[in-house]
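User: quick one, sequence for these tokens?
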């Protein structure tokens, strides 16, 4: 079962971010300023109900700030990121509306809810809450080592991607074994495409003239490429049904009787007497 969560991002403190903080979205557009996650830090993360929307979350936070909320009260220029059953969306908090953001998350992110500022993160199927204690870039992707906030060192850490998906179930750090498992996740074993078995003659045609010549040299009936290598000789077709010997004899006796002017029984008697004399 997927855990539905949301996070609140606020513009980082510092003079260099002054032009972004508390600015309405129309002003950013006018000055060609982009809403980029690199200028923000995560100040709060929590679970939400499946019925929650960005608007209900905003209203709830405006009415009461949770104790674990590390920033100022929800304000213009804040960004609410929602992960609802694996579908991630981001909204810019404007004065009287929420504006859907495209491209707020990193280009290499499939739903960045995890950063090095993450605390109180819920991992599906694991007890308690988790915080990010280390990160590593593997093949251009960012991964985080998460520590259980309640059990601390008595429980194994896990490694997740920036969408919160568990990549390594048990890890102490980003050692060689952990990085190997991450690479296996990034590059799963490709299954070889399966092709139907081909008949000999199909393979010979594909392999070119030389192999077809080889088949021709091994044929016994000189039929060459006909679908079978080294064909046996074809059996001779069966002849039509032989005429009866007795019928042939009767026909011959009838012909003799016709030529001699004798009756067929007489001819038969003469032939029988001749046979006995021999």
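Assistant:
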């Amino acid at each position: 079962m997927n855990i539905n969560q949301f996070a609140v991002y606020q513009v980082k403190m510092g003079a260099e971010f002054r032009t972004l903080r508390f600015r309405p979205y129309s002003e950013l557009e006018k000055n060609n300023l982009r809403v980029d996650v690199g200028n923000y830090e995560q100040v709060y993360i929590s679970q939400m109900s499946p019925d929650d929307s960005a608007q209900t979350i905003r209203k709830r936070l405006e009415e009461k700030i949770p104790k674990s909320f590390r920033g100022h009260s929800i304000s213009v220029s804040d960004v609410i990121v929602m992960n609802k059953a694996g579908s991630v969306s981001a909204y810019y908090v404007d004065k009287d509306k929420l504006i859907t953001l495209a491209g707020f998350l990193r280009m290499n992110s499939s739903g960045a809810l995890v950063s090095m500022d993450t605390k109180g993160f819920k991992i599906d199927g694991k007890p308690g809450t988790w915080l990010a204690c280390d990160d590593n870039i593997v093949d251009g992707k960012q991964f985080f080592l998460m520590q259980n906030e309640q059990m601390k060192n008595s429980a194994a850490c896990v490694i997740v991607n920036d969408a919160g998906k568990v990549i390594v179930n048990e890890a102490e750090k980003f050692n060689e074994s952990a990085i190997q498992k991450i690479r296996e996740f990034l590059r799963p074993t490709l299954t070889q495409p399966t092709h139907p078995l081909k008949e000999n003659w199909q393979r010979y045609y594909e392999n070119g003239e030389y192999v077809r010549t080889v088949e021709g040299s091994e044929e016994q009936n000189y039929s060459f490429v006909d679908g079978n290598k080294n064909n046996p000789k074809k059996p001779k077709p069966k002849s039509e049904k032989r005429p009866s010997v007795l019928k042939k004899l009767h026909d011959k006796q009838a012909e003799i009787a016709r030529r001699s002017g004798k009756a067929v029984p007489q001819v038969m008697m003469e032939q029988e007497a001749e046979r006995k004399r021999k």
